[in-house]
Amino acid sequence: MKYFFQSLLKTIPVLILITLIVFLLVRVTGDPVSLMLPETATDAERDSLRESMGFNDPIMIQYFNYLGDLVTGDFGDSFRYNTDALNLILERLPATIELAIAAMIVAIVISVPLGILSAVKRNSFFDLFITGGAVLGKAMPNFWLGIMLILLLSVTFQFFPVSGRGTFGHLVLPAITLGTGIAAEMTRLIRSSMLEILGQDFIRTARSKGLGEAIIVNKHAFRNALIPVVTIMALQTSTLIGGTLITETVFAWPGLGQLLVQSVNLRDMAVVQAATFIIAIFVILSNLIADLVYRLLDPRIKYD
């Protein structure tokens, strides 16, 4: 618990740095007032809106005001949706979390058995086929795979809906699209971890005792090979969130990714800053949880 709370404190400067980077990037992309008002707006109307939103203040004053609003949970209002930006993010967040969890389940279901089989059958046809497929899966862009799945399984055979959200069928294709690249990377990592563990002394000792190969692989080898897998799963949180930006756009999935893409195009600063902040929190917490899971998998790991 001491390590947990110390790690939480260390996330504060990281979040502050993230807010500063996003704050500066959003403001150097152009004048948001020109997007909020119609082209027929007068200069007086533009100056009045700029003054009311604090855009005439020095940049550091704007940033400190922004930080003060963050402390109270006030990210401002979206000028496009005319509603609180944080509430808008929280409305879309469940759909993104649903898609991310489904994609991770797809990745685990594919990568765990294939990674173990590839390690156990090292240098065999199965090993070459699986490793080749993993390289191919990692190389395929999400948007291309999503479009191909839509053309094949939705348009040609009509097995699944083309787009939208609401039923299990709507979730299948986006989850496969997002989970394939992660599954490819995890398969290669599980294979290499299993090969390293299978060559260690305690595995040879277990075999000398007459234990079955299934028990050796599943109980002894796989658990010890999980630590790097947990690491990559935590690191894939950012990949999942980044992948949803493309996947949600391809499948018209009403989640945070689609909202963020639209807000960036329209320079809806309140939504962009709120979404980035929430995403950063999820990535940081996922890495912190991974650190704690290490201790459960390997009691030899100590936290100082």
From TrEMBL:
<dbReference type="GO" id="GO:0005886">
    <property type="term" value="C:plasma membrane"/>
</dbReference>
<feature type="transmembrane region" description="Helical">
    <location>
        <begin position="99"/>
        <end position="120"/>
    </location>
</feature>
<keyword id="KW-1003">Cell membrane</keyword>
<feature type="transmembrane region" description="Helical">
    <location>
        <begin position="225"/>
        <end position="251"/>
    </location>
</feature>
<keyword id="KW-0472">Membrane</keyword>
<keyword id="KW-0812">Transmembrane</keyword>
<keyword id="KW-0813">Transport</keyword>
<dbReference type="InterPro" id="IPR045621">
    <property type="entry name" value="BPD_transp_1_N"/>
</dbReference>
<feature type="transmembrane region" description="Helical">
    <location>
        <begin position="141"/>
        <end position="160"/>
    </location>
</feature>
<dbReference type="InterPro" id="IPR035906">
    <property type="entry name" value="MetI-like_sf"/>
</dbReference>
<dbReference type="Pfam" id="PF19300">
    <property type="entry name" value="BPD_transp_1_N"/>
</dbReference>
<comment type="similarity">
    <text>Belongs to the binding-protein-dependent transport system permease family.</text>
</comment>
<protein>
    <submittedName>
        <fullName>ABC transporter permease</fullName>
    </submittedName>
</protein>
<feature type="domain" description="ABC transmembrane type-1">
    <location>
        <begin position="93"/>
        <end position="290"/>
    </location>
</feature>
<feature type="transmembrane region" description="Helical">
    <location>
        <begin position="271"/>
        <end position="294"/>
    </location>
</feature>
<dbReference type="Pfam" id="PF00528">
    <property type="entry name" value="BPD_transp_1"/>
</dbReference>
<dbReference type="GO" id="GO:0055085">
    <property type="term" value="P:transmembrane transport"/>
</dbReference>
<dbReference type="InterPro" id="IPR000515">
    <property type="entry name" value="MetI-like"/>
</dbReference>
<feature type="transmembrane region" description="Helical">
    <location>
        <begin position="166"/>
        <end position="184"/>
    </location>
</feature>
<keyword id="KW-1133">Transmembrane helix</keyword>
